[in-house]
Task: inverse folding
C-alpha cells in the first residue's frame, strides 16, 4: 500500500501513487507559480516557505523530489540538504537567484541532482524534475528489495545464519561442519533450508544477496 501525506496537514493519508514535487522557497510568488507548473505536468505539488516547515511534515513514501531555493529564511538550502541526506528517494534540485560556484560545488558533492539559476525556462525545470522522479522510483524499488531481503534474513535460524556466513566466505560444506562442530549432512540440511528461505536459486545469487544486505547494515549472527 502506498501512502502520501496531505500538504494541508500532518496526518498521513492513503492516496494514489502520484509523484510529489516538494517546493521550498521563501518567495510566495515563486511557490505559487511553481505549484501551477508542477500541477499542469500531472505531479502533486507540495510547497513550504522554509526548511523548518518542510521538516515538520511526515516523510513521504512515494516517488518524489525536492526543489529548494539555496537561500532560505532560517535554515539554508544546504542545511536542509544535510538534514535529509539519508532520504535517497528524494533527489534535490537546487534553484538560486544568482550564480554561487562554491555553494553549487558543495551541493553537488553532497549529492544534489541538479542546480539551476533563476530565471530558468519552464521546460528546463520540468525536464530536471522528470529525471529526478525517475531516480526516486529506482531508489524506492531498491529500498523495497532490501526490505524483502532483510525479512528473509530475519526468518533464518541462528544456525542457518552461521552456515550462510561461512558458505558465502568460500567454505566447503565439510569445512563449515568442522568449524561449527556438526556433520556435513547436517550442514547440507541447514544450507538447503537457508537457500529456500532466502529464495536464492544459486550460490552466486546468494552471494549477491548477502553483499546487498551488508551494504545496508552488518549481518548479525
Result:
Amino acid at each position: 500500500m502506498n501512502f502520501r501525506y496531505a500538504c494541508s496537514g500532518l496526518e498521513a493519508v492513503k492516496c494514489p501513487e502520484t509523484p510529489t514535487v516538494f517546493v521550498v522557497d521563501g518567495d510566495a510568488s515563486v511557490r505559487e507559480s511553481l505549484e501551477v507548473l508542477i500541477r499542469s505536468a500531472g505531479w502533486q505539488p507540495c510547497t513550504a516557505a522554509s526548511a523548518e516547515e518542510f521538516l515538520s511534515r511526515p516523510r513521504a513514501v512515494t516517488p518524489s523530489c525536492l526543489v529548494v531555493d539555496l537561500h532560505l529564511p532560517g535554515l539554508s538550502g544546504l542545511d536542509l540538504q544535510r538534514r535529509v541526506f539519508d532520504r535517497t528517494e528524494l533527489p534535490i534540485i537546487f534553484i538560486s537567484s544568482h550564480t554561487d560556484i562554491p555553494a553549487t560545488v558543495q551541493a553537488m558533492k553532497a549529492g544534489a541532482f541538479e542546480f539551476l539559476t533563476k530565471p530558468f525556462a519552464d521546460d528546463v525545470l520540468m525536464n530536471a524534475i522528470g529525471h529526478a522522479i525517475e531516480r526516486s522510483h529506482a531508489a524506492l524499488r531498491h529500498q523495497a528489495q532490501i526490505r524483502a531481503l532483510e525479512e528473509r534474513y530475519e526468518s533464518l535460524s541462528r544456525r542457518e545464519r552461521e552456515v550462510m556466513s561461512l558458505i558465502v566466505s568460500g567454505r566447503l560444506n565439510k569445512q563449515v561442519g568442522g568449524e561449527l562442530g556438526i556433520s556435513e549432512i547436517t550442514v547440507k540440511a541447514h544450507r538447503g533450508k537457508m537457500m529456500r528461505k532466502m529464495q536464492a536459486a544459486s550460490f552466486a545469487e546468494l552471494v549477491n544477496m548477502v553483499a546487498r544486505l551488508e551494504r545496508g547494515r552488518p549481518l548479525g549472527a
Remarks:
- The chain is about 50% helix and 15% strand.
- The first helix runs from residue 28 to 40.
